Structure formats: C-alpha cells, structure tokens
UniProtKB/TrEMBL annotation:
InterPro entries: HTH-type_LysR_regulators (IPR050950), LysR_HTH_N (IPR000847), LysR_subst-bd (IPR005119), WH-like_DNA-bd_sf (IPR036388), WH_DNA-bd_sf (IPR036390). Pfam families: HTH_1, LysR_substrate. The gene is ywbI. The keyword Protein transport does not apply. This is HTH-type transcriptional regulator YwbI. Belongs to the LysR transcriptional regulatory family. Keywords: DNA-binding, Transcription, Transcription regulation. Residues 1-58 form the HTH lysR-type domain. The keyword Heme does not apply.
Length: 296
C-alpha cells in the first residue's frame, strides 16, 4: 500500500463516488475501482458498502480512512518541509474561499501576492464556509476563509472583517419603507437563502428558531447575485452581509438594517494550528492580513 492508494481512498470517501473521485484525481474510473478493490483484498476487509450507484464507508473503511488522512498529512508535511529547504521562493497553496467572499476581498490580495511571488502557485477552491472549514481541518486545504467562530477544533484564525446582516426585500414589500426591521416580522415571509454548506444558512435559521418560528425557505443558492435577483422579482426575502449589499443594484430591491436581533458576520483566515505550514502558506497568511488590514 502506498501514498497514492491512500489518496485515492480518501477522495472516494470524501466524494462518495468512484466516478467523481476519478474526475477529481484526473484518472479513469476503472483505475480507481481496481485500486480500492486491491486494497480490500490486501487488508482483508470491505471498505465501502455499495448500493447501486451509492457507496458508503463501512466501519472498517472509516477506521482506515481516518488513519490514511493522518499518513497523507504527514507525507505532505515532509514534502513541504523539504521543498522549503530546497527553494524558499517556490511552493503551492490550496486556498478555500466562499463565493461571496472571494470577489469582494481577495482579487487585490491575490494580484499583489502573485506580483511578489510569481513562482508560487495558488489553487483556489470555491465552496461554502462550512465546507472550507471542514477541508482545512481535514488537511485538504492549506488555508481558507470562514465565518467566525469556527465549529472545527484545532483551527487558528485571523479576523479581517466584522459586519452584520441586512434585510433585502422587494420594493412592494410591506417593510420596504421602514428604516429598520425585526426578524420576528418575517415569520410569514418566504426566505431565499444560501445553501446548507454556507454558515449563514444555519445561522439565519437558528436565529429564527430562537424567536419561535421555522423560516419557510423556498429557494437556496450558492450565488448571492442570484439570491438578490430572486428577491428583485418578488419571490421572497433574504438576509445578506453589508459587503454584499453594497454590491446590489438597489433599483429593484430595498435594503433595510436588521436590528432585532443583530446577526453578526465575522470573517477570518483559518488554518490548522497543529500542522506544518509551508513558507508559501505562512507568507500568504502574513501578506493577506496586511493587505486586508490596509483595506480596512
């Protein structure tokens, strides 16, 4: 058994699909299926339960995946340290960015970082903050951006923005002329929210439940512009951070401060605090903190 086989196993377990794992690893599906079967024969256990096109880890498979992740992380740490010794100005960083964060904060950071370190390769992964947080914790990403506080243990963070959520409604909505709004006033409204892999999804629902109602969610998306357009055609209401609200054309919507309760939206750069950080990753964290601080 080698590192390559362990990486195949981890990817199949993560994506719950041989086909998707093969695509992500740029190999053929028969290759990855043969590799997993060979591992099962070598170990004498079944790693995945197969039901049609659906697969799930067995108990034995979960134990092996947990150990495999530690082995692969150690292997990457070894390679990263050796790379630093060989050449301190080259490297590769895997960065996770939630879609609504990337365009608002990071083009300037990425551009300036590339100008200073043109030989460092940056690989961006766009996912909801919850997914980014999980992938950083599991070692699949070197660094990411998430909504604070994080739910995963073992993560360090540097906050760089703290805002609150605003209510976004259609101009004909009953609250459109108000100067502020209460969440309790929205108990009968249809909501348009980010998908479940976005931290805001859970946070908004949790605040509604605290007030005694379950929001009626009619649509979910990963794109803030699509969400705002749904509101603009009168399909429902939404809650968005101030940064995103500044990007919205207010010709077809109204943006109203939410005051009871105030729902905070704090973002931070996150990384594993128990894992070796390469020169490239350490420099990215330092550089991004400085640029974002200058941006205010």
């Amino acid at each position: 058994m080698d590192i390559r086989q362990l990486q195949y196993l981890i990817e199949v377990a993560r994506l719950k699909s041989f086909t998707k794992a093969a695509d992500a690893l740029y190999i053929t599906q028969p290759t990855i299926s043969k590799t997993i079967k060979g591992m099962e024969e070598e170990l004498g256990v079944v790693l995945f339960e197969r039901s049609g096109k659906r697969i799930q880890l067995t108990d034995a498979g979960q134990i092996i995946v947990n150990q495999a992740q530690q082995i692969v992380t150690s292997f990457h740490n070894l390679n990263a340290e050796l790379d630093d010794l060989r050449n301190l100005k080259q490297g590769h960083i895997r960065i996770g960015l939630p879609p609504m964060v990337g365009a608002s904060f990071f083009p300037k950071v990425i551009g300036q970082f590339h100008n200073r370190y043109p030989d460092i390769k940056i690989q961006l992964f766009e996912d909801g903050a919850k997914k980014v947080e999980l992938d950083v914790a599991n070692g699949l990403l070197d660094v990411g951006v998430a909504v604070l506080p994080t739910g995963q243990e073992g993560l360090s963070n540097i906050p760089f923005v703290e805002e609150k959520l605003n209510l976004v409604v259609h101009p004909t909505h009953r609250l459109a002329v108000n100067r502020e709004a209460k969440l309790s006033e929205l108990s009968e409204d249809p909501f348009v929210l980010f998908r479940e892999d976005f931290t805001l999804h859970d946070r908004i629902i949790a605040e509604c439940v605290k007030l005694g109602f379950q929001p009626h969610v009619i649509y979910e998306s990963s794109q803030w512009d699509l969400i705002s357009q749904m509101v603009a055609v009168g399909l429902g209401i939404t809650l968005l951070p101030e940064t995103i609200c500044r990007e919205i054309d207010e010709e077809h919507v109204r943006i109203i401060p939410l005051v009871e309760p105030v729902i905070p939206w704090e973002l931070g750069i996150i990384w594993r605090d128990d894992r070796y950080l390469s020169f490239a990753t350490r420099e990215w964290i330092r550089f991004a903190e400085n640029v974002l601080s200058d941006k205010g």
